[in-house]
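Dear Dr. K.,

Following up on our conversation at the group meeting, I've run the structure prediction for Cytochrome c551 peroxidase from Campylobacter suis. I'm pasting the input sequence below exactly as I used it, so you can double-check it against your construct before we proceed with anything downstream. Let me know if the numbering doesn't match what you have in your notebook.
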Amino acid sequence: MRKIILILFFAVFALSDELFVPSLGLKYDESKAQLGKRIFFDKRISPNGTVSCESCHNLYWDFSGTVRTKVHENAINPPSIINAAHNYLYTISGNIRSLKDQIQIALLSYKQLGSSEDLIISALNKTSDYRAAFKEIYDDSINTNNIVDVLEHFIKAVYTADSPFDRYLLGNKNALSDEQKEGFEIFNKIGCSACHNGVNLGANLRHQTDFHRHMTSDEGQDIKSELFRVPPLRNIGRTAPYLHDGSIVLLKDVIERVAKIQLARSLSQDELDKLYKFLMSLSGERPRILK
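The predicted structure tokens came back this morning:
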């Protein structure tokens, strides 16, 4: 088994230049995305009418797609929804592989919006604008499937492109500074790219970690001994606090801790600084739908 792991490990580095994909976005329907945006910001779909999806996944005041503080004690640090449509795995445990399923869980989970299908449908049906908008797009009435569908198209529209790293992958070798290029080399050399790869540099696989204990999933199950989803790194410079429990505020601190625990490596100050500068190159432009 150890031999197989080593072979895979070296294969990853042999293919390191092919592990990353520029963020070019996904196809989405503009009308559905705009309608989904309205619902995403609408507090009337929550049980007490005081919170919306945007309350935990902020898209304007700091353009992070998450929040700076935990919503519940011992709860999961809300992940960013920016570029989330590119994820292969969803939720802290990575048990969800469909964006539609993840949206429905987020609407109904007591640790997230905590609403119900009947409440959301009723709230939207009370507004003539919503009734007209859904009628224009769909043949049937406002229902759960259509609500989830428009929210999915909105999330597909919330992606960041044209980051320095994207431009570098597309052939502009001057898009990264010399220190960022060295940081990228370190990122590959010490093994970060074995887990953080693909278009989102993560959210592709699950791993074991000693970072957290006594946490619960979206469904309320104890996940103390479960595998955790590898988090995506796009826009990581904007999405503090870090880790699943939001226990680390500074990006350099989390880089140092992950390297020590996951890679058994103590980083030099030079390595830490260059890795940090490389990760900052993963921040892209504000999505058009939010402008």
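Two things stood out to me. Strands lie at 206-207, 228-229. The longest helix spans residues 144-157.

Best regards,
J.T.
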